[in-house]
UniProtKB/TrEMBL annotation:
PANTHER family: PREFOLDIN SUBUNIT 1 (PTHR20903:SF0), PREFOLDIN SUBUNIT 1-RELATED (PTHR20903)
Sample GO molecular function, one term: protein folding chaperone
Protein name per its UniProtKB record: Prefoldin
Family named by the database record: Belongs to the prefoldin subunit beta family.
Organism: Mycena venus
Pfam families tied to this protein: Prefoldin_2
Coiled coil: 72-110
Length: 122
Protein backbone atom coordinates (compact mmCIF):
# COMPACT_ATOMS: atom_id res chain seq x y z
CA UNK A 1 0.00 0.00 0.00
CA UNK A 2 1.47 3.32 -1.07
CA UNK A 3 0.57 6.75 0.21
CA UNK A 4 -0.01 9.67 -2.13
CA UNK A 5 2.63 12.39 -2.27
CA UNK A 6 0.25 14.89 -0.67
CA UNK A 7 -0.48 12.57 2.28
CA UNK A 8 3.21 11.78 2.72
CA UNK A 9 4.04 15.50 2.65
CA UNK A 10 1.43 16.22 5.35
CA UNK A 11 2.84 13.45 7.53
CA UNK A 12 6.39 14.80 7.12
CA UNK A 13 5.30 18.34 7.99
CA UNK A 14 3.48 17.11 11.09
CA UNK A 15 6.52 15.11 12.26
CA UNK A 16 8.81 18.08 11.63
CA UNK A 17 6.50 20.38 13.58
CA UNK A 18 6.46 17.91 16.48
CA UNK A 19 10.26 17.81 16.47
CA UNK A 20 10.59 21.60 16.39
CA UNK A 21 7.99 22.13 19.14
CA UNK A 22 9.61 19.49 21.32
CA UNK A 23 13.05 21.04 20.84
CA UNK A 24 11.77 24.53 21.75
CA UNK A 25 9.90 23.27 24.82
CA UNK A 26 12.98 21.29 25.87
CA UNK A 27 15.18 24.39 25.64
CA UNK A 28 12.69 26.38 27.74
CA UNK A 29 12.49 23.60 30.35
CA UNK A 30 16.30 23.45 30.57
CA UNK A 31 16.50 27.24 31.03
CA UNK A 32 13.84 27.13 33.75
CA UNK A 33 15.66 24.27 35.50
CA UNK A 34 18.92 26.24 35.43
CA UNK A 35 17.25 29.36 36.86
CA UNK A 36 15.49 27.44 39.64
CA UNK A 37 18.69 25.57 40.48
CA UNK A 38 20.52 28.89 40.80
CA UNK A 39 17.75 30.20 43.10
CA UNK A 40 17.96 27.03 45.18
CA UNK A 41 21.73 27.35 45.61
CA UNK A 42 21.30 30.96 46.76
CA UNK A 43 18.69 29.83 49.30
CA UNK A 44 20.99 27.07 50.53
CA UNK A 45 23.81 29.58 51.03
CA UNK A 46 21.46 31.91 52.90
CA UNK A 47 20.26 29.08 55.14
CA UNK A 48 23.89 28.11 55.86
CA UNK A 49 24.77 31.72 56.76
CA UNK A 50 21.76 32.08 59.07
CA UNK A 51 22.52 28.74 60.74
CA UNK A 52 26.10 29.87 61.39
CA UNK A 53 25.03 32.94 63.33
CA UNK A 54 25.30 32.53 67.11
CA UNK A 55 22.59 33.62 69.56
CA UNK A 56 19.41 35.58 69.08
CA UNK A 57 20.02 38.00 66.24
CA UNK A 58 17.53 40.28 64.52
CA UNK A 59 16.95 39.20 60.94
CA UNK A 60 15.29 41.35 58.34
CA UNK A 61 13.27 40.27 55.34
CA UNK A 62 12.87 42.45 52.28
CA UNK A 63 9.23 43.30 51.54
CA UNK A 64 8.90 45.59 48.57
CA UNK A 65 10.99 48.67 49.33
CA UNK A 66 11.17 48.09 53.06
CA UNK A 67 12.57 45.55 55.49
CA UNK A 68 10.65 43.81 58.26
CA UNK A 69 12.18 42.25 61.32
CA UNK A 70 11.44 38.51 61.40
CA UNK A 71 12.21 35.96 64.14
CA UNK A 72 15.08 33.66 63.24
CA UNK A 73 13.01 30.46 63.44
CA UNK A 74 10.34 31.90 61.15
CA UNK A 75 12.96 33.03 58.62
CA UNK A 76 14.64 29.61 58.62
CA UNK A 77 11.27 27.89 58.14
CA UNK A 78 10.32 30.15 55.23
CA UNK A 79 13.66 29.62 53.52
CA UNK A 80 13.49 25.84 53.94
CA UNK A 81 9.93 25.80 52.58
CA UNK A 82 11.06 27.83 49.57
CA UNK A 83 13.98 25.47 49.04
CA UNK A 84 11.68 22.43 49.16
CA UNK A 85 9.30 24.06 46.67
CA UNK A 86 12.20 24.82 44.31
CA UNK A 87 13.48 21.24 44.63
CA UNK A 88 10.02 19.94 43.67
CA UNK A 89 9.88 22.33 40.70
CA UNK A 90 13.31 21.20 39.55
CA UNK A 91 12.24 17.56 39.83
CA UNK A 92 9.10 18.20 37.77
CA UNK A 93 11.04 20.15 35.13
CA UNK A 94 13.58 17.33 34.89
CA UNK A 95 10.79 14.83 34.25
CA UNK A 96 9.28 17.17 31.66
CA UNK A 97 12.68 17.57 29.98
CA UNK A 98 13.15 13.81 29.74
CA UNK A 99 9.70 13.41 28.18
CA UNK A 100 10.33 16.21 25.67
CA UNK A 101 13.74 14.82 24.80
CA UNK A 102 12.20 11.40 24.15
CA UNK A 103 9.46 13.00 22.03
CA UNK A 104 12.09 14.90 20.00
CA UNK A 105 14.24 11.79 19.53
CA UNK A 106 11.20 9.77 18.41
CA UNK A 107 10.28 12.42 15.84
CA UNK A 108 13.87 12.49 14.57
CA UNK A 109 13.89 8.69 14.32
CA UNK A 110 10.62 8.72 12.38
CA UNK A 111 12.04 11.25 9.93
CA UNK A 112 15.21 9.17 9.49
CA UNK A 113 13.14 6.04 8.89
CA UNK A 114 10.97 7.77 6.32
CA UNK A 115 13.93 9.17 4.41
CA UNK A 116 15.97 5.99 4.75
CA UNK A 117 13.16 3.82 3.35
CA UNK A 118 12.04 6.33 0.71
CA UNK A 119 12.34 5.03 -2.86
CA UNK A 120 15.36 6.44 -4.66
CA UNK A 121 14.45 8.65 -7.62
CA UNK A 122 16.70 8.75 -10.65
Amino acid sequence: MSLSDDTLRKILVQIQQTAVQSQRALNIAVQQTTAKDRERRILQLTIDEISGIQGDVNLYKGVGKMFMMVPRKEMEKELKDQEKELADDISNLTKKSKYLEKQFNDAQAQLRDIFHHAPKQQ
